[in-house]
Structures are given as C-alpha cells and as structure tokens.
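Exercise 4. Each item below gives a protein and its sequence. For each, produce the structure-token representation.

Item: RING-type E3 ubiquitin transferase (Oreochromis aureus).
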Amino acid sequence: METLESELTCPICLELFEDPLLLPCAHSLCFNCAHRILVSHCSTSKPLESISAFQCPTCRYVITLNHRGLEGLKRNVTLQNIIDRFQKASLSGPNSPTESRRLQPQRPYTATISGTIAGTIGGGGGTSGGSARSSPATSSHSHQHANHTNHINHTNANHSPAVVAKMDPRISCQFCEQDPPREAVKTCVTCEVSYCDRCLRATHPNKKPFTSHRLVEPVPDTHIRGLTCLEHENEKVNMYCLVDDQLICALCKLVGRHREHQVSSLTERFDKLKAYQVSPGRVSDAVMEASKTSAAQTLENNLTNLVKRNSELENQMAKLIQICQQVEVNTAMHEAKLVEECDELVEIIRQRKQVIAVKIKESKVMKLRKLAQQIANCRQCLERSSALITQAEQSLKENDHARFLQTARNVAERVAMATASSQVLIPDVNLNEAFDNFALDFSREKKILEGLDYLTAPNPPSIRDELCTASHDTITVHWTSEDEFSVTSYELQYTIYTGQTNFISLYNSADSWMIVPNIKQNHYTVHGLQSGTRYIFFVKAINQAGSRNSEPARLKTNSQPFKLDPKTAHKKLRLSNDCLTMEKDESSLKKSHTPERFSGTGSYGAAGNVFIDSGCHYWEVLLGASTWYAIGVAYKSAPKNEWSGKNSSSWVFSRCNNNFMVRHDGKEMLVEASLQLRRLGVLLDYDNNSLSFYDAMNSQHIHTFEISFLLPVVPTFMIWNKSVMILSGLPVPDFVDGVASDLQEHQQQQMGMCRQDSPYLTGMKTCH
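Answer:
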C-alpha cells in the first residue's frame, strides 16, 4: 500500500491530496497548496489577483491562469474519489474484511492459536490432560513462535500484536486498585496480565524468577489468554476431539462426554490441517508426516506469493490511477479543442452573417436608387401629360372661332405626339427590382453542422485478392475501405515473403519494407519487382485521428518470360519466327559457329535467352508427337558439344522412345510417366534449390532435383525428332504449389542428383 499511498500524496504538503486540482501537465496539486504558492509570490506591488502563472512543483511546467485564477483549473474528481476510498479502507477496524485480509498476521485468532499450541506443548499433550497453564519457558517459546509467524506473514517485523493494541482503545492496567486504572505500559505473557509502570516495578523486580517472564507491548486480554472451553468455565482449550471435530479442555477428556473419544494435541492437529491444505484429498500417513515437516515452509512460500501478488495489484492500481489521470488530461484537452473549433465555426458564421447582411443592404440601396429614379421619371411624365390635358380641355372650351382655330391645331399636334410617344414616355418597371428572386438557403450547411462529430481512425481496409493482378515484374493491388470518405490517404507497404508465419514480427522488422505513401485511390501498381517471387502486402488507411492496417496479403509475380535464343540453336534445328517453337531439320543450314551454340553430333539443342538467379519460375513445353527429347536447366559453362545431363552443370528430364528418365552428371534414373505425356511442366525454385517436373495435363508430379545452385541457370531444350513449343511467363498452378509444399517436408529424403554417391543413381542406364 506504500506505493499506492505515494501516488496519492501531494508534493507540497506531503499529505494525501485534498481537493486536488488537475494541472495541464497531468500532475495534481492540493487547492490550498496551490493557493499558498500564489501567496508566496505576492508583494505590496503585486497583489494576489495579478498573479497569472506559477510553476508545477513536480515538473516545473508553467501553469497559466485565466481571469478566474485557481477556480479556472479543473478539479481531479477521479483522484479525489480514489483518495476517499483509500482513507475509508485505511480507517476500517481489524474486523473489517479488507483490513483483515491486509493485516492477516495480526488477527486475534492467529495469536490465540499460537498461545494454545504453546499451552498444549507445556501440558504434555492432549491425551494426558495435563495442566492448562503454560510454564515460563513455554510461554517464551510461544511468543517467539508468534513473532516468527508475524515475520513470515508480513515483511515488516514490527507488525506484532502491539500494532493491534495501538489500533484498539486504551489498554488499562489490570493490577491497579485505583479507579480508573492507569494505562498499561507492558503485558506479561507469562502472567497473562497487563501492568502500568508503577505496578510493573512492584510485581516484576529485576530478579529471578521474574527475569524469565516475557514482557511485550500492551496487548488486549483476549489476545493473550486464548480460547476457553464452552462447557467448563475459565478452562483453556488444549485438545482437539477427532470424533466431534471440536476444541476441548482437559476436563472434557477426563470427566466430560469426550472421555471415550480419540483426541490429539492442538499442535498435531494444526500441522495436519496445514499439511492437508497443502495436499488436499486422501494421502498416506507417510505423505502426511512429510507434509507436516514442510508445512511451515509451504506457508511461508504461499504468503510470499500473496505479498508479491498484493504488490503487483498495488502497481496495477497505480498504473490505473495514472491512466485515469491521463484520461482526465486528454478529456480536458479534447474539450478545450472542441470549444476552440466550435468558437471558430461560430466566428466564421458571424463573419459570413455580416458579409451577407452588408450585401443585402448594398443591394437594397442600389435597387431603391433605381426605383426612386424611375418614380421621378414617372412623376415628370405625369406632370407634362397633366399640363397637356389641361391645355387641350381649355381649347375645347374656347367659343371664339378664330382663337379656337389658332390654338386647336397646335394642341392637336402636341396631343398626337404625346399619344404616339406614350410608350417611350412611360418608363418600364423591372419586377426583379423587388428582391423577389433573392433567397437564403442554408439547408446543406445545416446538414453538415448536424453531422459534426469527433473523428476516429478509419477501419482497416481489405485487400481484394481476386482483383489483384500480376506480371513478371509488377503487381497491381486492389483494396476496399468501409470509411472511404473519412480516409485522407493510403499507404502501401510490401516486402519479399520469406516464409515467416508470424506477420507481427515480420511487420516490426521495418528495415526490409518498402513504403509507398500518399495514395489517393483504392489501387496501386508496384513496378520493378523480382519475377517469380512472393511478396507480403499491407495497406494502411490514414486520417488525422490515426491509421489502421489491413490484414496481410501474399501476392506473387509471374515467372520470367523467355524465348529460344537463335544464337544457341544447333544448326540442324529450325526456330519459328517468334522463337517459341523449335523443330528437328536434317537439312544442313549454314549458321555461323559461336561458343554458345550447341554443336556436337547429336546435341540438337537450344537454350533460353535469360539466365535465372532468384525466384520461383514455371514454364511448360508442348511436346506434340516428339518421343525423344531432353528438357531442363544448365549453367552457362555447361558443354555444348554433348547431351544435356551428361555433365555436372546440367539437369534434365528426358524421354527415349518409351522410357522416361532424369539425368545429371552422366547418371540416369528411370522415372514413371504417362506415354500420353503431351505437356511437360517445369518448376525452377532457385531460392529453395529445387527443379521439378510435372505432367501438366494430369496435374501429376514426376520428379524433383535437389540442387545447391552456385551460378545462374538457363532453360535448355533438346529434341531428336518432331518439334516442341515453349510457354513461358506463366503463374505457378495450384497443383504445383500443393506438391511443392509436400516436397519441402521430404527434401532431405529426395534424390540429390548433384552428388556422385547418391543411392538413387544405382541401376541407371544410358539411353542411346
């Protein structure tokens, strides 16, 4: 509990936190202690209200206060609740369940059993019914045994019965005659009486036999006297009835109802019960005796484990407290961020409100100005028209013929002109000037605001294996994400798959990973990969709140594509224009001789145009009607003037009429294959040192060479009749993957054709 109490202690007052404040640096401080820090910075020229910052006493972080001062800091409610529970548990008495478990060695029952064991030993055992009172020597032994037990049960040796006495009410002297008696200073275990200082000097002078009495700190009377018999008052229990399974005294055995029962001493029964707890169930007497001797050691080990577990629990609780404090700090930080972001949104809305209001006012002024101008024009036209009407009416009222004729024509012309130009004089009224086509619609923005929420890391994306494609040097990875709209970008990570099944360990080895960051789409094509190689891919979805990885996906590039190299073809072979088919041609063709060309008599061969030094590659050969051929691989240094497989630098599968065989270093071994073999599959696993041949039509394995490759190899082809066609750059078929996995378990048992002393070479024959 010391570790827990230290976590709950204020660094200023060194007491448990009282009304703790949660500082921005995640530490805590009593409110009064924080106030005292502020007071210490006060002066006549600098009052308390003007202090706006102070340093955290733990980490020296500068705490800035707002206008509310210390009241502006958050209260650490979680820490205060933990302190309240801790204080309640600490103040509970020894009879409380929590305190009883914490102070197990201090319980009255333990002390009573120890005294009873000592009394039984002093009385000579339960069967004889000896004296109930123990001798001084026995009492001394009992006290030492109790001290030893307490030392075992707790790491602090001072946790004796005196500790319980200090927790209990005041212990009075039992020898004083005055009322009330004085407080006891010592308890005599031998006399089983507590004495004050004056009575102790009077009753226990420093001389024999009192020098042998054992004096301890004051202990309650019930702790030192032990248990008494239920049937015989004031008689201590010192035996155990095995028939009734209960504690009894000597009188119970002598004259009571237990006189015919089998009894045992308390010590013996105590040891047996302890041994039984160590080894529950039925055990033999020999095992029980052995258990009794090791009971004390077992108890000590068990209690040591219990103390260790309690320490672990305290450490765990301390960590939980730290996590609670961190939760408080993170919550306060996010709440402050929320207020800040919302205030910014409110400020943006306020600014936009002002801008739009200004626009409305400006539009209003402009429209009203136009309308006022139109009204003025209309008024002017109306005045002119009214004046003309008045003049015309006056002309009509003229009775003088001469005057009427003089003015009538002029007025008529003016009225005609006014009528003809009425459409020009009357101004057009624009209905749009009434602001009817203006509207405020913030429904889209309202929906966005209603959807405001805190951002979380996106869910892990999922790589779609069925959509991924590959070539011999590229792989296109496709993936999907449930949180596509919350993802800011993706990150693709990949590395060569080494067969390691622990992807977590593989992922942690960051040195071997290639990373493609800032991908905006749900697919990406990786270029420049090794052909015939398996890769591990991860996709990471990223946003401002964090990132999450997809499950790993294993994808493989296709085999290395190749063609027949015309510079290596024997002069009696004819190659097709695409260099994928070769045919035996007996007619002699004029071809220049080069060191890489097959030239020996009967060595009708050609090689591929690539050298392979890594990866896993698969190609097929369409055999057609050919019944005499040899297909395999060879080093560049392999002789070109002899059959492939006749030297240590080439490995081939061959057919000679109806016989199928494998050949290396001049040694041949017959293998089983169908006479209807029309499509031969070749798997070159350079990284795993193997070369395998398959009946691709029937998905059957024919043979595997185990080869320790030292140099790059090239595919080789020989025919003695008909023609063959090559299909390269193919993905490895599923049936080949399954067979290859099985073969890996038997690699050491397979034939090592590269060894001269291989037992599989026995009985080989040469096909001529």
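Check: The chain is about 35% helix and 20% strand.
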